[in-house]
Amino acid sequence: MSQSHHHSRPLEGITVLELGQLIAGPFAGSILAYFGAEVIKVEPPGQGDPLRSWRVLENGTSLWWRSLGRNKKCVTLNLRQDEGRRLARSLADGADVLIENFRPGTMERWGLGPTDLKATNPGLIYARISGYGQDGPYASRPGFAAVCEGIGGLRYLNGLPGAPPVRPNLSLGDTLAGLHAALGILLAVIERRQAPGARGQVVDVAIYEAVFNMLEAVVPEYDGAGVVRGPSGSTVTGIAPTNTYICGDGKYVVIGGNADSIFQRLMRAAGRPDMAEDPRFANNSGRVANEAEIDEAITAWTKTLASNAVLEKLAAAAVPAGPIYSVEDMMQDPHFQARGLFEAVNIEGRSLKLPAIVPILSETPGGTDWPGPSVGAHNEEVLGGRLGLSDVELQALQRNGIV
Asked: pTM of this prediction?
């Protein structure tokens, strides 16, 4: 058990039924479980969630699963069989929240749609994550994060001008959708608590919309001024200087000198007091107009020093700057350690570090109680305990391929 369990957690007493798989739905479930919700994850019998076999494996199980499946109670149900769906429905009747990320229409075909479940559990908060949302002309398209990041506007902005758009080596769209789902669920929980006898509601999260929500001023700039923001490499359009600069040891640092007084301190630290005082660079619009000249001067300085020397000088001058970290760098960094960003779990006698889930709450922090468990690890506890099935009934369900 993690230390934080001495406190209560904010979501204790809330039961969540997670029917999603892979990333978006399960990430939302992980956040809720970390902060105290009882999350019952339903997986197909046998292999379970496909994510269990994705990427780097240890003893046949994905290391990622240990993180994404943490604090969840794992049960197996075959939702392609009537009996499996009947049991899922019984679990939903006792839940506060349901999370699913199947293609729109799937849950309805199974008789597990919001209207079906509302009849017996009117307070149920029903969170749905899909590529394009539950309605509209694209609703039925399969929504993969990669595709949705493209249509949602992120990929257009990412990369070098004139080169093919690049992706960060992560499924950002899925994780952003999971975050939005968790936010939507919490909004619905608050609403339900404020209105006694309130009915639940559907939380409709689309991956492309979660990406679209990140676009800052892109829409009003286009509508108000006809400006289409495009890719800008390692800079940000219309703000200068903020860039990645190479140092004498071949490492890169990120420097953000894009406020008037910070810019002056940066140029003095770089041995260019003349540029610090130059009226052309006194405000952001002047610096943007002369961005190339400024970046050239900064690079000329950073190239003469090792990256840690550059960062020391900039820290002394109170200029925002930092290194480009790999995971190895993070795990060795004293600040990451001091903030408690790595939590150790035990897997078959071996210690494994998982990333903590933020935000950090002062009075009711979350925590990792157990890593992602094996397939069906909680069948007895949940199907026996919650639904009252006997051992004989569970064995029969197993023989028939339902669990």
From this structure: 0.94
Mean pLDDT of 38-66: 96
Output the DSSP codes for 51-88. Answer: GGGSSSEETTEEHHHHHHTTTEEEEE--TTSHHHHHHH
Strand, coil or helix: what is 390?
coil
Strand pairing report for 321-323 and 252-256 = antiparallel
Check the CA dihedral 17-86-103-105 and report its sign: negative
Burial classification of residue 340, based on how many CB atoms lie within 10 Å of its CB (0-12 exposed, 13-18 middle, 19 or more buried) = middle
> Domain 3-214+338-399 in CATH: superfamily?
Crotonobetainyl-coa:carnitine coa-transferase; domain 1 (3.40.50.10540)
Q: Which residue has the tokens 């509508």?
A: 223
**Residue 375 confidence (pLDDT) above 50:** yes
Name the band, by pLDDT with cuts 50, 70 and 90, for residue 195: confident
Nearest to 158 by CA among 98, 248, 258, 229: 229
For tokens 């506060």, name the residue: 96
* Domain regions of the chain by residue span: 3-214+338-399, 242-246+252-323
Question: What is d(CA 385, CA 362) in angstroms, rounded to the nearest whole number?
Answer: 34
Cis-peptide into 241, omega within 30 deg? yes
| Chain mean pLDDT for the chain | 96
* Residues annotated catalytic, as ranges: 174
Taking the C-alpha atoms of residue 199 and residue 203, their distance in angstroms, rounded to an integer, is 13
pLDDT at 267: 98
Q: Is the confidence at residue 59, as pLDDT, over 60?
A: yes
Query: 242-246+252-323 architecture in CATH?
Result: 2-Layer Sandwich (3.30)
Alpha carbon 280 to its chain's center:
41
State residue 144 phi and psi, 5-degree precision.
-95, 150
**Per-residue confidence (pLDDT) for residue 1, from 0 to 100:** 42
Answer for the pair 57, 395: CB distance below 8 angstroms, yes or no.
no
What confidence tier does 6 reach under pLDDT thresholds 50, 70, 90? low
Which residue, among 372, 368, 320, has the nearest Cα to 340 in the 3D structure? 368
* DSSP letters for 170-193: S-HHHHHHHHHHHHHHHHHHHHHH
Torsion of CA 46, 50, 53, 56, to 10 degrees: -160
- pLDDT per residue as tens digits for the range 315-357: 999 999 999 999 999 999 999 999 999 999 999 899 999 999 9
- Residue 126's φ and ψ, nearest 5 degrees, are -115, 105
